Amino acid sequence: MSITPHDERFMAAAIRLSRWHLGRTATNPSVGCVIVRDGVIVGRAVTALGGRPHAETQALAEAGALARGATAYVTLEPCSHHGKTPPCSEALIASGVGRVVISVTDPDPRVSGRGIAMLREAGIQVDAGVLEEEGRRSLAAYLTRQTKNRPYVTLKLAVSADGMVGRQGEGQVAITGPLARAQVHALRAETDAILVGIGTAIADDPLLTVRTPGLEAQSPIRIVLDPTLALPLTSKLALTARDVPVIVVASEEVWPLSADAEGLPPSILPDTSPPVGGPKDGSRPVARPRYSGRAEGGTPSTDATDMDSRRAALEAAGVEIVYCNPYHPEILLPALATRGISSLLVEGGAKTARLFLEAGLVDRIQLYQAPVVIGQRGIESPLDATDIPSGFAHRGTRMFGEDRLDEYERGF
Length: 412
Hints:
Blueprint: H1 5-18, E1 32-37, E2 40-46, H2 55-63, E3 71-76, H3 88-95, E4 99-104, H4 114-121, E5 125-128, H5 132-138, H6 140-148, E6 152-159, E7 164-167, H7 178-189, E8 193-197, H8 198-204, E9 221-225, H9 236-239, E10 246-250, H10 304-316, E11 320-323, H11 329-337, E12 343-348, H12 350-358, E13 364-369, E14 378-380, E15 392-400, E16 403-410
Parallel strand pairs: 3-4, 4-5, 6-12, 6-13, 8-9, 8-12, 9-10, 10-11
Antiparallel strand pairs: 1-2, 1-3, 7-14, 13-16, 15-16
């Protein structure tokens, strides 16, 4: 592999470009591509909003005739299969580029290695693995869904100087300042879905949208772990469900009786239902684990008539209800992946954060530490900078006013 410092410089530019559309390319990865001729960038692009057209075809179109004999820098191996658009490998071959430099090979079995093989068979020099670690980080959501069949999970915590994430009975408590909160909204804008427990949904009544001017339309799908359908109809989430999607994850034990032909509790039936948001795959039915534990914020009555009334009211408000054990993230996350959700932001509360940490299903931790003191009736944080779980590497520290952000990431 004949890699030069110039290759790393142009690949770094492609990786920066790829981040422009994170969370906005549907199920396709956000890929960056730059076309370089005689040391000058003559074409550049990122995967379009919605996932098409791909970065390579846009960059080649911008370069035009200057692409012939040039070098293309691509953050992900060019696709080699026919989908809704022709393969990008074919477009690169047709353009006459002389060399293609790739950061990350694609784990998708329809592509993996085939794109590179097509290019080499056409006489194009191909070098792969340039700035691979940085490339994998920029593609983390896509790679996680492809290789682990679940979304990439980021846990965000804002912790006070005395180790608290809130105060009992007081709803939302401002821990970080406006600069840090703006950064969190930027994170939401590049994430497919955001998740909280029902205790947080009731106590804080959060909106969970992006409120950065110009990015409001990039608000993620909002998910609430709510085993007994306790989400109030007067909550901001329910009142805005027709504007930004809300999914309530309920226990199988509150499944409508009318849905069970045999009248048996759904938690002991074989799982022959479609995965959340997806078609049946023909796989062997598996027993669904029963709901155990209690919702944050209490457990309201599970009287069948009352439950049916709450279910109907939430659905009438535009809330989608799915039945998938809320407190078994190892089941929930693959179900979310079937819906095309590649990245998930877990924002609270403390019990929900602990749930994902104990399951070993957190890939990145964003830990904000603020000088605010919560004091009495504080809700203790599930972790702080002194007890980050093993397997996480510290990726850096940034300051937002008086608030410190430390980011930790688990290796692939």
